[in-house]
Design brief:
Length: 335
């Protein structure tokens, strides 16, 4: 489980993380330093100075450049050494740089062939930039392979058992899912009719009677999941409430057993209610901590017994399609 897709955009940081100091982050097993210059320009470099291989993340930002904290060698956002103490004109010294795109409050990095980096292939997280949607999110480091998080999100049956205080509903494991692959997208759907709303839906929307609850989960590589949730009052009830939610999930591999998990939860109603936005963020963060406990335990078991194969479930249709798609793409990159 140490292979990763390279020629895809991954979230490297939240925009607000890049302030007046460089930050270190391991991405796809590579030490990276991220920084924002005084003009707002951002850079991502190999976190090793060309001189003594000292982490550049230990240095300081000087204008739009990054100065090594060991001997003052200084690099621009493209990785070119522009200042070397003792030399009036530095030689052609560089460290590796990585393409970046800052959009929707996230900073995306391209770890593969830089000539293949195309801004048009960014994951579809556009709802974060639309006025119709309001939300908030965060980042969680999970000591588990990114594919385990992917599979957790593609099978929401676990909500009944793992998230009893928030997302649980008695009917989720009684309704089968449908799954399909369309090109490089895997889609899983479940429609639950005339069910009792989960504690989260009851609090966030105000449901007191049964609802129709639709779940659509879409996976795209490298390792991104968009969950669309919609609830409507069931026919025959006295309520007439509608809502839409989006849960955006960007899993950026750190190593073969750890992941930077970026997420955002939004809604398309009651947009001015800032206290509801904060409550939803906090509730979702607590929910993901429950997932973290399960996933890290799962990873420990896999690490200790790597040859043991899991027994599939009828709800694993989407997991199987996503794993097959990822393996095909890995083989394509290897070739």
């Amino acid at each position: 489980m140490s292979k990763f897709l390279n020629n895809y955009w991954y979230v490297a940081a939240n925009s607000e993380e890049l302030k007046d100091r460089p930050i270190a982050r391991i991405i796809l097993g590579n030490p990276i330093v991220l920084f924002r210059g005084k003009s707002g320009k951002i850079g991502a470099l190999d976190d090793r100075c060309a001189h003594r291989l000292t982490p550049l993340s230990l240095g300081r930002i000087d204008g739009d450049q990054l100065e090594c904290g060991y001997h003052g060698w200084t690099y621009d956002c493209a990785g070119k050494c522009v200042r070397l103490p003792g030399l009036e004109t530095p030689q052609k010294i560089t460290v590796k740089s990585f393409p970046l795109v800052e959009k929707w409050g996230w900073v995306f990095i391209w770890m593969g062939d830089p000539d293949k980096a195309d801004n048009n292939t960014l994951p579809d997280f556009h709802v974060m930039g639309e006025d119709k949607w309001v939300g908030d999110g965060g980042m969680l480091r999970v000591e588990a392979h990114c594919d385990l998080i992917r599979d957790n999100l593609l099978d929401l049956t676990h909500a009944k058992y793992t998230h009893k205080q928030t997302l649980a509903t008695e009917d989720v494991d009684r309704v089968p899912v449908t799954a399909e692959r369309v090109g490089d997208l895997v889609r899983v759907k479940r429609v639950m009719k005339n069910i009792q709303p989960s504690p989260f839906f009851a609090r966030a929307v105000g449901y007191t009677q049964n609802i129709i609850h639709r779940q659509t989960t879409e996976f795209t590589p490298g390792c991104n999941i968009v969950i669309r949730l919609r609830g409507n009052s069931s026919p025959g009830t006295s309520e007439n409430l509608k809502n839409g939610f989006r849960v955006l999930n960007a899993m950026t591999p750190e190593t073969g057993t750890s992941t930077h998990y970026f997420w955002w939860l939004g809604r398309d109603y009651n947009q001015e209610n800032t206290s509801l936005t904060q409550w939803m963020k906090d509730a979702n963060a607590r929910t993901f901590l429950e997932d973290k406990t399960v996933l890290e335990g799962q990873q420990r078991n896999i690490t200790s017994q790597p040859t043991q194969q899991p027994v599939p479930s009828p709800a694993d249709k989407g997991l199987t399609l996503a794993a097959k798609l990822t393996e095909e793409l890995l083989q394509g990159e290897a070739e």
